[in-house]
Amino acid sequence: MKPIQGLILNPETKQAASLLAEKTFQQFKNVRGHYRNTENSHLVGHLGEFAAFIWFRDNGFEPVPNFSDPTKDKECDILTNIGRIEVKTWNDKFWDEWGRSVSVSQYSSIKRKADFIFWCSVTDIESETPSVKFRGWCEVGVVEGLTPKMTGVVGREVNNYQLEPFQLKPVEQMGEINASRGNTSDRD
User: Fold this and answer.
1) Which end of the chain has a smaller Cβ tally under 10 Å, C or N?
2) In this structure, are residues 8 and 50 in contact, taking their beta carbons and an 8 Å threshold?
3) Ramachandran region of residue 56, left (φ > 0), alpha (ψ -120 to 50) or beta?
4) Cα gap 100→146, rounded to integer Å
5) Residue 60 half-sphere exposure, CB side, CA atoms within 13 Å?
6) Is 90 in contact with 99 (CB distance < 8 Å)?
7) Angstrom distance (rounded) from CA 147 to CA 15
8) What is the rounded CA–CA span in Å between residue 187 and residue 174?
9) pLDDT at 104
10) In sequence order, which ranges of the chain are alpha helices (DSSP H)?
11) Which long-range contacts (CB under 8 A, 24 or more apart) does 1-4 make?
12) How far apart are CA 118 and CA 134, in angstroms?
């Protein structure tokens, strides 16, 4: 089995994710979310989005970071030259229980706005240089037909569609989609 890809974010990116987390938490703090709505959960999500954006940029996908504009919350997180990306990120210590999950209440929104889901987990969240693991990706349609189940720790369970680990494709395969379409990072 290949090691999981990922990257360590620099302090500037961590700061940008923190500022964005403050902004989006303030925007949504009174809205009942699909998962726990805390400033830390917003930070975890934005760390994954920044890391995914860097990966897409560095691999020639010509990404547009919709996530960086809180007014674009109804759009995909990252628009690329192969499609619309939703980034789903968990604290690494909750990956086994919560990872690979889409809440039943959120699925219709994701289905409308995205073609692919890019899965991440984060360690060292409080560090100036958090580490993001790229757990894999899938087409949004793979969620169709899954039976919802309660996932998570007792007392904080959420009704989710949860993919099995084998349903996630390695990030290298997403790179192969880009290469097969003739996309390169040094395009004019």
Assistant:
1) C
2) no
3) alpha
4) 12
5) 16
6) yes
7) 38
8) 18
9) 93
10) 11-28, 39-58, 95-98, 104-113, 171-180
11) 2/170, 2/172, 4/133, 4/134, 4/135
12) 8
Three-state SS at 140:
helix
DSSP 15-45: HHHHHHHHHHHHHHTTS--SS---HHHHHHH
What tokens does 107 get?
């699925």
Q: Which two tokens stand for residue 47?
A: 């760390």
Say if residues 48 and 120 touch (Cβ distance below 8 Å): yes
C-alpha–C-alpha distance, residues 89 and 95, integer Å: 9
For 32, the token pair is 């009942």
The whole model's pTM is what? 0.89
Measured CA to CA, the distance from residue 167 to residue 157 in angstroms comes to 22
Question: Which tokens belong to 50?
Answer: 């920044």
Structure tokens, 108: 């219709």
pLDDT digits (tens, 9 = 90+) for 117-133: 999 999 999 999 999 99
- Tell me which residue has tokens 């109804």: 74
Cα(59)–Cα(107) distance, integer angstroms: 28
pLDDT at 187: 38
Helix, strand, coil percentages in the chain from 3-state DSSP, rounded to 5: 40, 25, 35
Cβ atoms of 6 and 51 within 8 Å: the answer is yes
